[in-house]
Design brief:
six-stranded antiparallel β-sheet, two-stranded antiparallel sheet, 7 helices, globular
């Protein structure tokens, strides 16, 4: 049974340029052949929740022994065993005739730019609709001929609002076949989410991370708890942490 939600809000700050690519189906003749993904309404870049969630999960899987072994067992597929930290937090999808053990506990929203970043973009002549153009060369090892290729990326120091929701469920006393609502260790799962976020800070988001793209930082974190009374009785939520760094947030959670 549902117990409570933890709402994690904050800022994603770009330490270097970020490239999250768009579908090539939308490319028109004469435009950059390596564009970033943009919101279809505003025309401005955003960070898809699917990109952020997928990266958080994959990094947590590599950092957890049981999860990593299960990924190897699944031949590169996501961890799916109930003993794996990543699967307990991010869920397990059905494979073949196997039913999922449990749904995801985590919702990762799309992240949109802050008004301050949009204003900063508009002040720069070389930033168009929230993107700069970076030229990269592929060099022929024999002839030394260069093949320049323009790439769009969101400039460094841009900020995006992010939101992650972690759901916690009480133990389920029904059939053993029903694994969807096994009791959660809410604190352990919450620390697992922040573990993945810390891992991402020392990794990269999006494409071309080995060439300097996609370094990010999580900051100004607020953590709130919303239990059943919030949804049934319209009671106020509980603010646990406000405007904190990720390290301070983790230490405060451990102390709870």
């Amino acid at each position: 049974m549902f117990k409570e939600n933890y709402i994690i809000n904050g800022k994603i700050i770009l330490e270097t340029g970020l490239h999250v690519g768009d579908s090539k189906d939308s490319i028109e003749i004469g435009v950059i052949d390596n564009p970033i993904i943009r919101d279809r309404i505003s025309g401005l870049p955003y960070i898809p929740g699917s990109s952020l969630k997928g990266k958080l999960r994959s990094l947590l899987e590599l950092n957890d022994k049981e999860s990593a072994n299960n990924v190897i067992k699944n031949r590169g597929g996501p961890s799916s065993d109930a003993n794996c930290k990543a699967a307990r937090i991010f869920g397990a999808s059905p494979t073949g005739e196997t039913k999922p053990n449990f749904p995801t506990r985590v919702i990762v929203r799309d992240s949109f730019p802050t008004p301050e970043s949009i204003e900063k973009w508009e002040e720069k002549e070389d930033i168009v609709r929230g993107a700069e153009v970076k030229y990269e060369n592929t060099i022929n090892r024999i002839t030394s001929a260069a093949n320049p290729r323009p790439t769009e990326r969101i400039p460094k120091e841009s900020e995006f609002n992010f939101e992650i929701i972690l759901s916690v469920y009480d133990s389920h006393e029904g059939s053993d076949d029903i694994k969807s609502f096994e009791g959660d260790n809410g604190k352990e799962n919450l620390l697992g989410v922040f573990e993945a976020m810390l891992l991402l800070e020392d990794n990269y988001l999006g494409a071309s991370g080995s060439r300097g793209y996609g370094q990010i930082k999580f900051d100004k974190i607020t953590l709130k708890k919303r239990d059943q009374n919030y949804y049934k009785e319209k009671q106020d939520d509980e603010t646990i942490i406000e405007n904190s760094s990720i390290i301070d947030t983790v230490e405060k959670i451990k102390a709870i």
